[in-house]
Amino acid sequence: MTKTLSDPIQLIYAGGTFGSYGKPLSSLSADVFLPIVQELLAAQEHTAHLSKSSWLDNTLFKDSSQLTPCDFAHFYQLLMAAYAQGGRRFVLITGTDTLSYLGAFLAEAFAGSDICIVLTGSMRPLLDSEVIHSYCIDEHSDAWDNLNHSLQLAAAGESGVKISFGGEAWPAQTVQKIHSHDLMAFTGHFRAAYPANSYIKSLPDTRRQHWLDDQQEVVENIQSRANNVRISALYCLPNDAEAINSQLQALLSQPPSGIILMGFGAGNVPYSAALAETLELAHQKGHMVVGTSQCPFGGVSDSYAAGSWQYEHHVISGGRLTIPAVYARLLWLLLRYDSPARRRQRWLNNVTQTGTTIKKR
Is pLDDT of 256 > 70? Predict the structure, then answer.
C-alpha cells in the first residue's frame, strides 16, 4: 500500500552543536537530550503534526568534523532500513562542519526514490548553558527555529534531500557553509540538476520495491568499501606546476580513488607536460580526477585554454557542483560501483542526462 503524508516524521539525532551543553560545550548523550527535546516539542503551540514524530534509534554521535566515509555509510544504511520499513519522511540533526557533505551524499545515495530527508543543525546550542539547574531553550539560539522549519518541510513531504538552515532550504547538492560562526552560515541555490531532479513525487509500490531491491543487493559491499575509501583534494596555489604534479604523483600508489583538483576561477590549472603525463597515468591506474573551482559559485568551464587542457587528459568536469557535492558524488560512486570504468561511466551519464556541465561559449 502506498504511503501517505499521515506517516510519522522520523527524527535522527547525531550530535553536533545543536545538542551541546555545559562549559566547555560538549554533546549531550541521546538518552539525556532526546527526552528534553521531545518534552519541549510537546509544549509548543501550532505544532499538531509534531505529535506524530518519533526518534529513529541511532548509535552514532560525534562532532561532524570527525565524520568519515564509514559514518556516511552508517547514515545511509540507517535511513535505508527505515525507508524499507515504510518510513518516508526524516529529519536528521547533525553538526554544521560537514552538513553539506553529508546532505549531498544522501542525495546521491537515494536518487530515484520518493524519500523526503531534511538535514539541519545549528550554530548555537538549543539549550542555555547559563541555566544550570534545569534545561531550557536558549532564546538567542538558532536551533529551535531550524528544527521547526525542518519539521515543517518534512511534514509537507516533498521528495528529495534538502538542507534547512536560517529559515531557508535548498537542494542538498547545492549547499555550502559560507560563514564560520554567523547564524546565516549556509547558502544554496535552486538550479540543481541530478540528483535533485531524479526524485519521484510518489513511487508506486512495485517501482519502490524494485528500487529497494537494487540498493539492498549492494548494501553490504558499500559498508565494506567504506572502510578503505579515500578522497583527496589538490588545491592550486600560485606555484609552478611541479607543486601539483608532485602531490598527484604521491597519490598514484594508492588503490583507485577520487581526487578533486581545485583550480583557479573557472577551473584553470597550471600546465606542464609532466603534469599532463601524470594525469594520464592516474587515469590508467583507475583514479577519478574531477576538476572544480575554488570559487564558491559558478563552477568550471572549458572556455579558457588554461583550464580546458586538463580535460584532454581524462580529468572530469565538476560542472556547477560545489566542492561538497563533488566529494559526495565521488564517494557514492566509489562505494556503489566496483570498477573505475563503471564509476566514470555513471558520472558522465549523469552529466549528459541533466546538462550539469557548463557548455563552452
Answer: yes
Residue 3 has pLDDT above 70, yes or no: no
Q: What rounded mean pLDDT belongs to the chain?
A: 90
The secondary element (H helix, E strand) that includes residue 127 is none
User: What are the C-alpha distances in Å from 37 to residues 132, 148, 222?
Assistant: 17, 12, 33
20-21 and 26-27 beta bridge pairing: antiparallel
pLDDT at 150 (0 to 100): 96
* Residue 314 one-letter amino acid: H
CA distances from 351 to 74, 179, 238, 274, 318 (A): 27, 30, 30, 29, 9
- Within 10 Å of residue 61's Cβ, how many Cβ atoms? 16
| pLDDT higher at 158 or 356 | 158
Helices (H), the chain: 30-43, 69-84, 99-109, 143-156, 205-216, 219-226, 241-251, 273-284, 305-308, 323-336, 340-354
Please list, in sequence order, all residues whose beta carbon lies within 8 angstroms of the beta carbon of residue 100, skipping any fewer than 6 positions away: 163, 172, 175, 176, 177, 186, 322, 324, 325
CB 208 within 8 A of CB 216: no
pLDDT digits (tens, 9 = 90+) for 118-155: 999 999 999 999 888 788 889 899 999 999 999 999 99
Beta bridge partners of 260: 233, 290
Count CB atoms within 10 A of the CB of residue 346.
Answer: 15
Do 271 and 241 touch, CB atoms closer than 8 A?
yes
> 244: pLDDT confidence band, cut at 50, 70 and 90?
very high
DSSP letter string, 147-190: HHHHHHHHHHT-SEEEEEETTEEEEGGG-EE--SSSSS-EE--S
Residues written for the chain: 361
Q: Is the confidence at residue 356, as pLDDT, over 70? A: no
Provide the 10 A C-beta neighbour count for residue 176. 20
C-alpha closest to that of 272 among 301, 296, 243, 300: 243
* Separation between Cα atoms, residue 150 and residue 162, nearest integer Å: 9
- Asked if pLDDT for residue 343 goes beyond 60, the answer is yes
pLDDT at 355: 43
- The three-class DSSP label of residue 96 is coil
Query: Taking the complete model, does pTM exceed 0.85, yes or no?
Result: yes
